[in-house]
Amino acid sequence: MDLTGIGGVWPATLTPFTPEGALDEGALCAHFAHLAAIPGVRALVVNGHAGEATALDLAERHRVVALARATLGAETGLVAGVAAENTRQACALARDAAEAGADALLLFPPPAFAGGSAARPEAILAFARAVAEAGGKPLVLFQLSRASGLGYTAETLRRLCTEIPSVIAVKEGSDLPAGYDETRAVLAALGRPVTLLTSNNTALLGTLACGGDGILSGLGSVAAPLLVDLDAAIRRGDLAAARAAHERMLPLVRAFYRAPGMDIHNRMKTALHLMGLLPHPEPRPPLQPLMAEERAAIGAALREAGLLPSPASRCEAV
User: Fold this and answer.
1) Is residue 118 part of a domain?
2) Are 46 and 80 spatial neighbours (Cβ–Cβ below 8 Å)?
3) CA nearest 63: which of 27, 97, 104?
4) Does residue 281 sit within a domain?
């Protein structure tokens, strides 16, 4: 599927494991099929942060992409994350994901860039060019926060989009409104379509209201219908409906996106388990299962968001 110019909601999928720690392929395919069937979901993203990609070996990452490709229909795009420590590893992942059937690649900046890559834009450009050539697929750039040291300056982002024509989208997670708006302005001035997908999970309403084409988020693995409602309301200029979707999402945002950050996607897996959509919520070590108190808090957030029936309503149904 050609994802050029395609917005809407792109959930970053989770990766279920068996109690023994292996990929749970049946649960994984069910997860993909469930999300792809939701109207307004235009693409699925696999092997990203939400999917615990760095805990997977190369063969497992390949298998995740291949299973997604076999599960998805022609109307749902498939984007594979490329998260690696260096250029050589990233190129190998890009080639492998392309062979497994990815339509596009989500390119993560390597951790080494946190050491001052803003002062060495030639390193950033060389890295992205090499991965683009190796994979031969369109690129989605991951714009992280400046505070992380992994965010691109406006000029570097402009050069990436100008000098690498295969860049078709930006996952915008700069966290601050000013950073998002700077990215929006850079893309608007390019003279060609590069999709802007907000990933600022605690400010989805505000960033979309500034302008943008959709949402790419792990939150979409749990609450894709709410993200679709928010995105659609903004697109038709219905601020009241957008605010209503935002209010429904807030309990989940508060439950998921808090310290410690290492458990953000662990909490999402627990949410899917509580919703009956994931048989085993455990992450892969060194991450650990959540305690009962936090599981209860996530259940309460799901009920407040309308994604889980209250105990009373379950009794009434019986």
Assistant:
1) yes
2) yes
3) 97
4) no
Looking at residues 240-269, what average pLDDT do you find?
A: 97
As given in the structure block, the two tokens for residue 193 are 């379509």
Is-above-0.85 flag for pTM?
A: yes
Reduced 3-state DSSP string for the chain: CCCCCCCEEEEECCCCECCCCCECHHHHHHHHHHHHCCCCECEEEECCCCCCHHHCCHHHHHHHHHHHHHHCCCCCEEEEEECCCCHHHHHHHHHHHHHHCCCEEEECCCHHHHHCHHHCHHHHHHHHHHHHHHHCCCEEEEECCHHHCCCCCHHHHHHHHHHCCCEEEEEECCCCHHHHHHHHHHHHCCCCCCEEEECCHHHHHHHHHHCCCEEEECCHHHHHHHHHHHHHHHHCCCHHHHHHHHHHHHHHHHHHCCCCHHHHHHHHHHHHHHCCCCCCCCCCCCCCCCCHHHHHHHHHHHHHCCCCCCHHHHHHHC
Residue range 259-288, pLDDT digits in tens: 999 999 999 999 999 999 999 999 999 999
What average pLDDT does this structure show over 9-38?
97
Structural domain includes residue 283: no
What's 159's domain CATH number? 3.20.20.70
Is residue 165 included in any domain, yes or no?
yes
CA distance 134 to 73: 26
Q: Which residue range is the domain that position 225 belongs to?
A: 8-236
How many domains is the chain partitioned into structurally? 1
Angle at 125 between CA 128 and CA 169, to 5 degrees: 55
CA 258 to chain centre: 17
